[in-house]
Structure formats: structure tokens, C-alpha cells
């Protein structure tokens, strides 16, 4: 069985900032327009987004580059709509250049004024449009701009950022010292990859995109850095044959659950059942057999004859609740050795990742999915968590390359990388940041692999199923108090297209 992603559209692809800078002019020229026309289209897109705030008084804060030009054009449109708008600039007397200067002149010719930034303007407005810094920022935000950003964020007023929230690195999503915390961001021409994961995703707020009428031409020129995926990106799983039986849908072996940690492997195993695996067996510590078994008679549970359990399986999940003691190490070594020698699809999670990190030089993994959170990825790569989070796209790829595996870097905007392609999960919410959530994810992926999906397909679809289930659970009962087991019913419904 194969589950293929549908062909991506422009709103599902992300790009590095250099790709957009390098090709937007060429793309717009092929349509017979110019960059100033593109700036006007950008202003119209931002203006449409601005209208959703229903603001009577708007403050536009501008810098010195093309992002400022967008700001002046938006201000002119707001003024034409007979709404009150004030434009404050970092340096009102600084001469701009190119299209930004043209936009500034159009604003002034329309009767608009430009003033210095002051705190009173923040008090008087209903919404702030951020046109301070664009995508070219690479260094730390200068003190004078940082002061403005701090005041804007502290105002608690709604903020609409143009292209990227000022201060955010468009490629990594990290603040360059400090950054605007936007309510909404209208990103233009191509989606900047940094706005889709971790801090960039948080600072962008609700992300909107407009390709400004050049998307088709731009896609022909630029190479995307990643694809954004959600549940609608996947073709449905095929209907099961009426003559199928339990052995037709995969035999998933879940290994883990040391003394006192039975819950983790139980969550993985049950999520495997709920995700469609025909049979699920748990190999666990002898003291965990009873806790894993109670209340779920569909699970087969053993603490003996690991070699027989491995020979029985068509996919293995190892790690949830495994621990790192002598029993865990012995179990890990035996399981990984068998899976690699026999090319058994494998999901490595939790404590198994920590054991792998201790001997990473000795493992190049075939047919394997790794599921680290940032701290686990840091141990796998011998880095700090801060370093991993400073460039998630780069280090998700490094995890995949170093272990010749498909790597999932969990977090807001989870990344999936198979050494050649990167995918970004659009769904998910903070309610998923709860104990056991990752164990459920590993069981979902294992079940999909047991049913015949390859590592990349299972990783992508599994991450999306898990995240969307979390969103449905959140809609039903809220984020706080969500349990990992709350996802089971939603996963089952989603995988059956309900």
C-alpha cells in the first residue's frame, strides 16, 4: 500500500528569503508588470487583511527599506477608505530609495504626514501595522528599533505585520535579539519557511499568504525549501478487501515500559490499534506486564522471548518508557540489531533515542523513523537544545543525514525530513504538550508502517493525524487538561475520513 501526497500548490510551499529576492523581479517581469506594481499589489493584500480588524484608528510604523514602501502604500489605501491613519517612521527625515521612495512620495502627495514614533500614538490607535523590517534582516536588531518593538509589543494592541514580523529571521524563525509579536502576518510572493515553525510560528500569529499574481511564474523559477502539509494533502487510505483478516493489516511490536513506566508503552500500543494495525504485541519489563494488560484485552503482552516477538512483527516501535538501565540497553541492542539485519520498519522514540545517542557512531539506520523532540535531537547531534532550536530546518536535516533515516523534529510546526525533502505540519496546538503525546505519535506511525506505508509517508501522515486529532480534541474540550489518550477516538475518526 502506498499513500501519496497530492501535488503541492503555491500556498503549501515555503522558500528561503534569498529565493524570493532572487526571483520575484524576474517572475513579475514575465507578467508584463514591474516591482512597483508588485508593491501596490502587496499593499492591497495587506489592506484586505487590515479590514478584518475593523479599526477606526490605525498606526503604521515604517523603516527604511521596501517593507516601508509597502507600509506607505497601505497607509494611502486606508486614508482613501476614509479611516484615520498615522504613519510613524524610524527616521522621518531619511531619504528612501527606489520603489520605497516612490511609495513614500505618493503618501505625502495624498496629504499624508510622517512623524517620529511616540508612545502616545500607540495609546490612540486600534491596530498597528508593522512595516519596520523586512526579510533581509541577518544581524541583531539595532537599539532604536528594538525600543520601538518593545513598546509595540507591550501596548497589547493587535498587530498586523507585513511579510515577516519585524526582527524575525525569515529563514530560521528566530528573533534577531527581539521581534514583533504579531496578531496576523501577511506574507508575500512565497511563504518564508521561518514563519512556519517554533518561535517564528508564534511571532507570526495567524499567517496569511498572497502570491501577488506571480505564483505560477515564481514556482517555475524557485526551488522550495519545504512543503506545508495538513490532512487535506493526503489521498485516503484504500478500502480494505472484504476477504482481509487481522494478519493482513500488519503486526506491530511495541517495545518499552520499564519498571514504573508502563503507561508510555501502553499509549503507543493502543494508538497502534486505533490507527489500524491488525495485531499489536507489547514486549515490556516483567513488572509492567500487568499494568499494560489491564483494561485493554486486545493487546498481547509479554516480558519473555524477545527474539520470537521480533520474528513475529512486521514493524517495531521501540523507546516509550524503555528507560536507560541494563535491561533497557540489552533490549535496545537486541531489537535494533534484529531490525537492521532483517530490514524491519522501525520507529525509534523516547529513551531509545537517548540510548542511540550514546552509540550514534555505530548506527546507520535503514527503514527507520526517528521522533526526537529538540532536547533529544540535541543529544543525537551532540549539540545544545538552543542550537537545535536556532535552526530547526538545518538540524532536522542533519538528524536524517547522520542516521540515514526519516527524522521528525517535534514542536510547534513539526518538521519531517528524509534527507531529500522537508515537510512542515500545519496543524497542532499547545494542548499536545502533555506527557504521553509523543508515545501516541510513535504508535500511530508504527501502525501506518505495519500497514505498508514507507517511512516518509508514515511519518508525514502520522504527524498530521496526530496534530489534527489534537486540534479536534482542543475544539471539543479546550487545551488545558487534554490527555494523550483523548486523541484515540479522533485519530480513529480521521483515519476513516470521518
UniProtKB/TrEMBL annotation:
Cited InterPro entries: Carbohydrate_kinase_pred_CS, CARKD, Nnr, Ribokinase-like, YjeF_N_dom, YjeF_N_dom_sf
Cofactor: K(+); Mg(2+)
Catalytic activity: (6R)-NADPHX = (6S)-NADPHX; (6R)-NADHX = (6S)-NADHX; (6S)-NADHX + ADP = AMP + phosphate + NADH + H(+); (6S)-NADPHX + ADP = AMP + phosphate + NADPH + H(+)
Protein residues bound to (6S)-NADPHX: 134-140, 163, 264, 321, 373, 439
GO MF annotation: an example: ATP binding
Stretches assigned to the YjeF N-terminal domain: 20-220
Binding site for K(+): 67, 130, 166
UniProt cofactor note: Binds 1 potassium ion per subunit.
Binding sites annotated in the UniProt record for AMP: 410-414, 438
EC number: 4.2.1.136, 5.1.99.6
Keyword tags: ATP-binding, Isomerase, Lyase, Metal-binding, Multifunctional enzyme, NAD, NADP, Nucleotide-binding, Potassium
GO biological process: metabolite repair; nicotinamide nucleotide metabolic process
Gene3D superfamilies with a match to the protein in the record: 3.40.1190.20, YjeF N-terminal domain (3.40.50.10260)
Residues in YjeF C-terminal domain copies: 229-498
Stated role: Bifunctional enzyme that catalyzes the epimerization of the S- and R-forms of NAD(P)HX and the dehydration of the S-form of NAD(P)HX at the expense of ADP, which is converted to AMP. This allows the repair of both epimers of NAD(P)HX, a damaged form of NAD(P)H that is a result of enzymatic or heat-dependent hydration.
Family: In the C-terminal section; belongs to the NnrD/CARKD family.
Assembly mode: Homotetramer.
Name of the protein in its database record: Bifunctional NAD(P)H-hydrate repair enzyme
Organism field: Pseudoalteromonas haloplanktis (Alteromonas haloplanktis)
